[in-house]
Design brief:
Layout: H1 3-14, H2 26-37, H3 41-52, E1 67-68, H4 71-77, H5 81-84, E2 87-93, E3 97-102, E4 106-108, E5 115-118, H6 121-128, E6 131-133
Antiparallel strand pairs: 1-2, 2-3, 3-5, 4-6
């Protein structure tokens, strides 16, 4: 068996592979960031995941991170009323940005999950428009 085939077989037996889709231009930003940090993209992503899931609990879904829906918050964010029935929880922080968790039975077409995470309010408004009942 050649060295390349041996390495590929080893990797296939020891690791899971995932594919990530990023908006155009973000790949180059990620490559530049990882280059400046002198780490691989895989190591960067593994570190983010490990930090987020420390204690087997994602910070995006923890009770400390996401509060129950505050209608005044949704009014301030100018979320249309037709989407509010979908929202289970919402929170904003300078560190994490805007986070909305959708109720069971709803999904966001952009993230393909129940979580919408955006750094800017206009991104959040665009993303909530892509939510639907499943």
């Amino acid at each position: 068996m050649s060295r390349g085939k041996y390495i590929n077989k080893f990797i296939k037996g020891k690791y899971d592979r995932i594919e990530i889709l990023l908006p155009k231009g973000q790949k180059n930003i990620l490559i530049s960031l990882c280059s400046n940090l002198d780490i691989s993209i895989s190591e960067y992503i593994r570190t983010l995941i490990a930090n987020d899931l420390s204690g087997n609990r994602s910070t995006l879904l923890s009770n400390d991170s996401v509060e129950m829906v505050d209608i005044s918050l949704l009014n301030k964010w100018q979320i249309p009323k037709k989407y509010r029935i979908m929202i289970k929880a919402a929170k904003y922080s300078k560190e994490n940005g805007y986070i909305i968790e959708l109720k069971d039975g709803y999904i966001n077409n952009i993230t393909n999950t129940k979580i919408i995470h955006a750094r800017k309010l206009d991104e959040l408004r665009l993303a909530i428009n892509k939510s639907k009942k499943i």
